[in-house]
Design a protein that fits this description.
mainly alpha; single chain; 3 strands
Length: 416
């Protein structure tokens, strides 16, 4: 499939004219890819080979999952908010990351999101993933933000890379503090969409304005829709796009069993950087626990961004079951409704029989709801134990609260 469109900064009168295309085959070098393009396109990209190479090589990652097999490049005579490859290899890598996230996105899963707002999810969930990726890189390299912003402001006047200043503003505001609430992050993203009409197009902007009108006309409905968009983004942080796609391939009908439990554990371990032989050394018949994965990762909990991992196992587990199955609907129920999720989480320090009793109560409440009468969920005793192992493959809730509090800027500002 042709899964990504790259804007070329060439002076052409025609709009949306195909400039060139090539097959994205494994082992194809950037130089060879340029050779498959028309001479005018190759010549235009030649001065920006580092950016093009980073982008091209990034598209080859996870190709068996993304399905990106052909790249098509377009001439556009308009400006755009996202910079082109002239901004250098950093931006080439980031644009490829965004392309992969977009290709891996399965579409909105949150049942609270009205159909008319679903196109926003296709845009903001991959962008939320990209922002978190940039934040993680910025923590490792304090010079990252200046590297990203410098080419945007130094571009030639007749070919601006950030003509409206929206990209620079989004990155600067997001990276300025470490304690953004998810609601605030999504307002940043939605403001970015609103301020970038040349990039996102009129249809998406009309949907965004419709959502804004809902805030005035029906605040509770707006709150539900925004919560759904936030949840879509939360399920797309770190390497969740990759691991959700991996598990999607392994899913199918049937009850909980040890193989599903172990697939989720492998994916959570992968999110912590424990892969391959390192994971195989851990695997055991009784399943894995969060402390075991944390120890294998070799990282103290205080050095890990815990928020993306709190519900990661549920997002992953949902990929293992068909869309209309009771198991998947139950997992979505826990992801979307805080009350049953917190009820189950409250049993974290209880003995196994108390945990199973709490799960039974949450399950019975789910089954009693009229909307679930045709998709009941049941757990045999062994299935319940395996489900709970998956549910608690997450940071300790008390540690997570402490971690969030200490990450707040207030504690980095006040002395003592």
């Amino acid at each position: 499939m042709t899964a990504y469109i790259l804007e070329l900064w060439l002076h052409q009168e025609a709009v949306d004219q195909v400039a060139g295309e090539y097959d994205l085959t494994p082992g194809l070098t950037p130089e060879a890819a340029l050779g498959e393009l028309p001479p005018a396109v190759s010549q235009a990209l030649a001065p920006h080979l580092e950016g093009f190479a980073a982008w091209h090589q990034g598209l080859l990652l996870d190709q068996e999952l993304t399905g990106i097999s052909r790249v098509r490049l377009y001439f556009h005579h308009r400006s755009a908010a996202l910079p082109a490859l002239a901004a250098g290899p950093w931006w080439g890598e980031l644009l490829a990351n965004l392309a992969r996230a977009t290709a891996l996105y399965p579409g909105p899963q949150d049942t609270r999101l009205p159909r008319r707002f679903q196109p926003l999810a296709y845009t903001v969930a991959p962008l939320r993933h990209l922002l978190e990726h940039i934040r993680r890189r910025a923590r490792q390299d304090p010079e990252l933000l200046p590297h990203l912003l410098a080419p945007l402001s130094s571009a030639t006047p007749d070919s601006p890379l950030d003509p409206l200043g929206q990209t620079s503003q989004l990155l600067s505001r997001f990276l300025a503090r470490d304690d953004w609430r998810e609601r605030d992050v999504f307002h940043l993203l939605l403001d970015f969409v609103e301020g970038s009409p040349q990039l996102f197009g009129e249809p998406l902007l009309n949907i965004w304005f419709s959502l804004k009108r809902l805030q005035e006309e029906d605040p509770p409905a707006y709150t539900r829709a925004l919560a759904a968009l936030i949840n879509e983004g939360r399920g797309y942080l770190r390497d969740l796009p990759h691991w959700r796609a991996v598990l999607r391939r392994s899913g199918g009908p049937g009850p909980w069993d040890a193989s599903r439990r172990d697939l989720v554990a492998q994916a959570v371990a992968g999110l912590l950087g424990v892969k391959g032989e390192d994971f195989q050394k851990l695997a055991g018949a009784d399943g894995l626990t969060w402390p075991q994965l944390l120890e294998a990762a070799g990282l103290p909990e205080k050095d890990i961004d815990l928020k993306p991992l709190e519900k990661a196992s549920l997002f992953l587990a949902a990929e293992l079951f068909p869309e209309d199955s009771g198991q998947r609907r139950f997992l979505r129920h826990l992801l979307e409704q805080e009350e049953p999720y917190r009820r189950l989480l409250a049993s974290v320090y209880d003995p196994p029989d108390a945990r199973e009793a709490q799960l039974a109560g949450v399950k019975e409440a789910f089954n009693r709801h009229p909307a679930n009468c045709e998709s009941q969920v049941e757990f045999a005793p062994e299935e319940a134990r395996q489900f709970l192992q998956v549910f608690f493959l997450r940071p300790d809730p008390v540690e997570a609260i402490i971690h969030r509090e200490w990450r707040k800027d207030l504690y980095h500002t006040l002395k003592g």
